[in-house]
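Appendix C reproduces, verbatim, an entry submitted by the partner laboratory led by Prof. M.T., so that reviewers can inspect both the input and the predicted structure.
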Amino acid sequence: MSAQKGGSDGYIQNTDFDIMNLFYRGELSPGRTRASLQLGYNEKGFGANSFYSATYPNQFEATRTMFAALSLQSEGQIRLKSDIYWRRHHDRFELFRDMRDAASWYAGHNYHLSEVTGVSVNASSTWALGTSSLGGELRGEAVWSNVLGLPMDEPMDVPGESEGEFTRHFYRGNFSVFAEHNYNIGRFSLSGGILMNRHSKTGYGVDWYPGIDLSYMLSPDLKLMASYNKALRMPTFTDL
């Protein structure tokens, strides 16, 4: 368990910050199974002078993040690992801090709340022809905002804020399954795999992402590698 609290008045105007971190991790190992629990909370507020743009020196941002993750692992001929996780992130961005000297066109601060939940299961086994792995993940992502997403039927008060309403919301889901195999013979190592992915908002149906890696140990300290992989990373809501 750990706790941290820090702050500063800043080195120039509007570079002050205040931060708090809380973290807990606990483990249990009954028999050949290991369970791990992680809990965390982060709260941060900072003056963003020239952080995003020098045009608006009085910017300010305040964030709150909470997360929890439970992991289970078991050993044996077939090794299993499963994870359940949840993360919530609050964000308030002020182009004009506390509305001081706000421009007439400035309608108000931006508020976002994003939430991610997911579960994954992986299994692997080593046998005469190498190590085989199989797994899958189900993940959901949602955002409430007054800027991002689709219009809501009814506005919602921003949790933890004295003002502000969420007027937009968006949800997307993702499901993936993968299979891979690794085989070593002498100094050669060959790995191949494929991932099937289904995203609720891409409109492409099922996507396939293959990959293959070949390596050769020239010496204990030097390895020659060649690989081909196809991958995709969906941007976060705030990336967009």
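The longest strand covers residues 165-185. Additional entries are available on request from the coordinating office.
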